[in-house]
């Protein structure tokens, strides 16, 4: 592999990690709002694709 190819691969991975981080942050914000509205933890987990344990920890 060339240096340029390595750089492109690293940039792509960094971008993907940023996207995932942003998606996770948004899911957590949504989960917090739904918890405040009294929605059950299991339903929030299903909607946000977060683990039930993680949603429960927000409560």
Task: Label this structure with key terms.
3 helices, mainly alpha, single chain, 59 residues
Structure in words:
- This protein is mainly α and 59 residues long.
- It is built from 3 helices and no strands.
- The termini are far apart.
- The model has no long low-confidence stretch (mean pLDDT 92).
Summarize the structure.
The protein is built from three helices and no strands. The protein is mainly α. The model has no long low-confidence stretch (mean pLDDT 92).
Radius of gyration: 17 Å
Q: Multimeric state of these chains?
A: single chain
Helix content: over 70%
Number of strand segments: 0
Mean of residue pLDDT values: 92
Main beta-sheet annotation: none
**Structure annotation, total helices:** 3
List segments where confidence is low: pLDDT < 50 over at least 5 consecutive residues.
none
Organism: Succiniclasticum ruminis
Protein name: Transposase/invertase (TIGR01784 family)
In terms of topology, how is this protein built?
Layout: H1 3-36, H2 41-48, H3 52-58
Helix pairs in contact: 1-2, 2-3
